[in-house]
């Protein structure tokens, strides 16, 4: 039997945090990475995550992918940007206060000296314009790799870049560059991040409250480590080393983003085995879920960062009304409670009154997050997952129950359809299998998306 899900930590999920290199388009200033409260998007809006990775087969161009759940990324534009010269590796993306999306990237293949980092911008994420290559002003510089955007809570725009010198071209140290104009064409002198030290690469930073949290890769052990500081420039204290998070070795390119349920997701390149992984934390980086390969793009995408936005045009579902829910790919079948379990039988005009009542539910604001939704039956019980099976139980008032019974709306595959993502198990969806409703992890396939899409319909009873 599938293990019982770990209890959610609702208090920790509500902490204020600065989102790394993200922008919220509705209700907050784009590009400001201050103390934004993580929550599901309101009715009619949608969360959008965008990545711009280079390809395992080609480091001369990047694809653009987008996702509404940070799990199932779909191709938006293939070969969206090819620089006029050199390569494009390790592309980091953010949305600036001028409304443009910017990427910065490594300009040469790993075998060659690389003293510049590249910059390009786009108004729509799919058509990109080269801006310039910037020579990082470090004496005897050999390589400048993996530039990562970091927008501080004061609005300052920074790039964290890993640099080595000619006396030891494979020993990297993280440096901070700060933009000195809003056009992002002038930069401060590089400042080494104190405390992280040499032989660390791909350093990615987020800020939670007044603390900076860094995730550098140790180039000797090949593990992603964890460090904290009270100042962006340090000094950092390395607090976790080795396989402290259970991610394994030969991992690089960490990038973090805040999820709608308040947790954090880290993405990293498992270059040792060819997969791209993600892992979640709900206790401010103390513990992490077992790493899972990203569906669809694992093995194709390489080193990327993520920009998160809230955009208009998302699914909408009225609260405090009764609805029935029809399968998008089995249109004669509806949600129906049977002996407390949620199944997907055929329901029609000739069904009995009891069968129609069992296929009718009241949509209410989410118990754990009012921007999400919960579902109540005629007896007052709530739809929740237990051992990943969908069932109805009385609300026991716990935060675990609230998380189990709350779902975030995502756009479905058919017109008017909705997908329901678990609040406390990000990337897991209500889906039907053998005409039973379960909560299962998205595998990125079209079939999964179809099986997890449902059309809100006029209530049968």
TrEMBL record:
A Gene Ontology annotation in the biological process aspect, one of them, is: L-arabinose metabolic process
Listed InterPro entries: AbfB_ABD, AbfB_ABD_sf, Glyco_hydro_beta-prop_sf, TAT_signal
DNA-binding recorded as keyword: no
Secretion signal, residue range per the UniProt entry: 1-23
Source domain of life is Bacteria
Q: Which PROSITE patterns match?
A: TAT (PS51318)
**Span of domain Alpha-L-arabinofuranosidase B arabinose-binding:** 324-455
The reply to whether Signal figures as a keyword in the UniProt entry is: yes
Key words, A-Z: Signal
Gene Ontology molecular-function annotations:
alpha-L-arabinofuranosidase activity
**Protein known as:** AbfB domain-containing protein
- Species in which this protein is naturally found: Streptomyces tuirus
């Amino acid at each position: 039997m599938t293990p019982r899900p770990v209890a959610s930590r609702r208090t920790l999920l509500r902490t204020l945090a600065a989102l790394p290199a993200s922008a919220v388009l509705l209700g907050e200033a784009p590009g400001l990475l201050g103390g934004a409260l993580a929550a599901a998007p309101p009715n009619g809006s949608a969360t959008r995550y965008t990545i711009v990775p280079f390809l395992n087969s080609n480091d001369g161009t990047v694809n653009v992918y987008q996702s509404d759940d940070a799990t199932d990324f779909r191709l938006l534009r293939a070969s969206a940007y090819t620089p006029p010269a050199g390569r494009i590796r390790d592309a980091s993306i953010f949305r600036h206060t001028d409304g443009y999306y910017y990427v910065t990237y490594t300009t040469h293949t790993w075998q060659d000296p690389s003293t510049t980092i590249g910059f390009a911008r786009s108004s729509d994420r799919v058509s990109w314009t080269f801006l310039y290559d910037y020579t990082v002003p470090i004496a005897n510089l050999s390589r400048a790799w993996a530039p990562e955007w970091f927008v501080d809570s004061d609005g300052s725009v920074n790039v964290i870049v890993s640099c080595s010198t000619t006396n030891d071209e494979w020993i990297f140290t993280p440096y901070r560059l700060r933009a000195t104009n809003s056009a992002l064409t002038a930069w401060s002198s590089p400042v080494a991040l104190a405390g992280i030290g040499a032989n660390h690469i791909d350093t990615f930073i987020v800020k939670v409250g007044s603390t900076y949290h860094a995730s550098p890769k140790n180039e000797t052990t090949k593990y992603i480590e964890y460090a904290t500081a009270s100042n962006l420039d340090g000094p950092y204290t390395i607090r976790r080393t080795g396989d402290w998070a259970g991610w394994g070795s030969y991992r690089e390119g960490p990038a973090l983003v805040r999820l709608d349920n308040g947790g954090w997701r880290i993405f990293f390149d498992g270059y040792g085995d060819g997969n791209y992984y993600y892992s979640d934390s709900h206790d401010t980086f103390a513990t992490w879920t077992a790493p899972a390969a990203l569906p669809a793009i694992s093995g194709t995408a390489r080193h990327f960062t993520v920009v998160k936005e809230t955009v208009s045009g998302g699914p909408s579902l009225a609260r405090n009304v009764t609805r029935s829910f029809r399968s998008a790919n089995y249109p004669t079948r509806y949600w129906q409670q049977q002996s407390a379990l949620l199944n997907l039988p055929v329901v029609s005009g000739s069904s009995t009154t009891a069968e129609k009542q069992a296929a009718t539910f009241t949509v209410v604001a989410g118990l754990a997050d009012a921007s999400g939704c919960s579902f109540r039956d005629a007896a007052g019980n709530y739809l929740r997952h237990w051992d990943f099976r969908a069932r109805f139980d009385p609300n026991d008032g716990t935060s675990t129950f609230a998380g189990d019974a709350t779902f975030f709306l995502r756009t479905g595959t058919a017109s008017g359809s909705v997908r329901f993502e678990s609040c406390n198990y990000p990337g897991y969806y209500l889906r039907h299998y053998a005409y039973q409703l379960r909560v299962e992890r998205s595998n990125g396939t079209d079939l999964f998306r179809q099986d997890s899409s449902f059309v809100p319909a006029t209530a049968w009873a």
